[in-house]
Amino acid sequence: MTSSNGRKADNTTVPPRGGIAPTCLVTKKKRMKSATSPRRIKALIEKQLPALEYRKLGWTYGQIAEMLGYGSAQAAHKAVASALKRIVRQPDRQELLLELERVDALFARPYIDALAGDFKALEACLALMARRASLLGLDAPALPAPSTYRAS
Asked: What is the 8-class DSSP label of residue 31?
């Protein structure tokens, strides 16, 4: 049975009596999706991880947004930040880990060339090694030798 507005009692739309169907059909009511459902969280993670990988490669947030279908560069930034939070729980280490990944990725090719005798590649390797050491704090000043105290 239909009402005067052309709707059935079960919330589906039927064409009005004139025979012309409305352009937007209303279907049965759907339940709202939970933002914390396991399927939705998994889908978010599967989209965030590629965003993080593109960022490690040096892509801008605008490029990541365009490639992965985010609405804006800000949304892509948020996805990268969320992915980093899932990987590392200490926010101050996020940028450090990202920078170390970049240095390691850049090191592979010049290292092979340096082993073959290319001096420019050797310089590049040494510069990358110095950068990595400074990021990790390996170039900290040496501690002074312990002094010996003699009691008299």
From this structure: P
Distance CA 34, CA 125 (A): 49
Please tell me whether residue 27 adopts helix, strand or coil conformation.
coil
Structure tokens at 61: 């947030």
CB atoms within 10 A of CB 2: 13
Note the pLDDT of residue 119: 95
* Whole-number Cα distances in Å, 46 to 52, 59, 118: 11, 18, 41
pLDDT at 145: 65
User: In angstroms, rounded to a whole number, what is the distance separating the alpha carbons of residues 62 and 84?
Assistant: 18
- pTM equals 0.38
Mean pLDDT by 10 residues, the chain (152 residues): 52 51 51 64 79 90 92 92 72 77 92 94 95 84 66 60
Q: In whole angstroms, how far apart are CA 24 and each of 13, 15, 17, 127?
A: 9, 11, 16, 62
Across the strands, what pairs with 2?
8
What is the residue-wise DSSP string for 113-151?
A: HHHTT-HHHHHHHHHHHHHHHHHHTTTPPPPPPPPP---
CA 17 to chain centre: 53
Task: Determine the pLDDT at residue 95.
Answer: 81
